[in-house]
Structure prediction request, 355 residues.
Amino acid sequence: MNVTSLRFGAIMVGVALLGACQPGAKSNQQLGYRGTGMDQIQLKSAKLVEPVPAPPYDPPAPGGKPAREAYQNVQVLGDVSEDQFSYTMAAITQWIAPEKGCNYCHNPANMASDELYTKVVARRMLQMTQTINSTWSSHVKQTGVTCYTCHRGQAVPAVAWTLPPTGNPNSIVGNLHGQNAPTPASAYASLPNTAVAHYLIDKDAPNIRVAANGTHPTPADKLTVMETENTYGLMMHTSQALGVNCTYCHNTASFRAWNISTPARAQAWYGIRMVREINGDYIGPLAKVFPANRLGPMGDSLKVNCATCHRGQNKPLGGVSMLKDYPALRSSAPMMPAVAAPAPAPVGAGVTAAR
Prediction:
């Protein structure tokens, strides 16, 4: 065997070994200056557009009597037309409860009643969707979101999270703070699985950074190892949730510097704050409405993270926009008062719809 054959054989073995790490056809895109290591490598299968459901029927023409005049107890979609209201309700049924239908949220004998907790939750989720589409274009752009973005035909989104148990402080092991307990939320790393809870639970979450600010930081600016691990845990989650590597947002010359980062980093920055608002203002307070079997071990609601919408794609649903067919979900709704437990409407309200 000559030297050329040996070299060729070695190359083929190397290719086979590297290919086994992540099989499948790949594509790459140059995101930064040449020679800076800013190629974004992605499995081609991750870019496949997921089929989305068609509208329940042809969208209705504009105009008509407002829904609040046609039905009772319409608290969110009262300004849309009666036809647009029915059309949107039909779509939501298809997106969330295709098997149970309207009865998943409504009492068929009294559609205006709030006696089912699912209706109270759905009303709040409608407000959340409208808020995202009307105030968070910095993240969702003009693509927007619908109920299907998260639910995809399921009453409970397939990807959600709750606060992890804190452990037994009286145990010899004590509270491990999520260490060495790999979960999808930490990309199955030994990094703390509490990172998502640490950063994505409310507006008062700490800043996400691993380097102190300023050339000569004070002791107050420095971060502990635990805080740094939480940051890396969140970055691992984000990378896996979007199906991308670090250079999708960061420049390898300086992960910290914003002026050489990609535009995706700013969009991700807004996305993190959007998720905080979703969990803090909309989903978290619903813990008093959900039954015990819909709560986590610490009594909190199932919440969202990056993977809830993205599911391994840098653009949810491959970038397909469903919002264009559902104008009722674009409108901005005022903040509702604190969520109360479901209460039945007066008997005899008739077969009416409510949201």
In short: The longest strand covers residues 26-30. The chain has two domains: 66-157+326-355, 160-310. The first helix runs from residue 3 to 21.
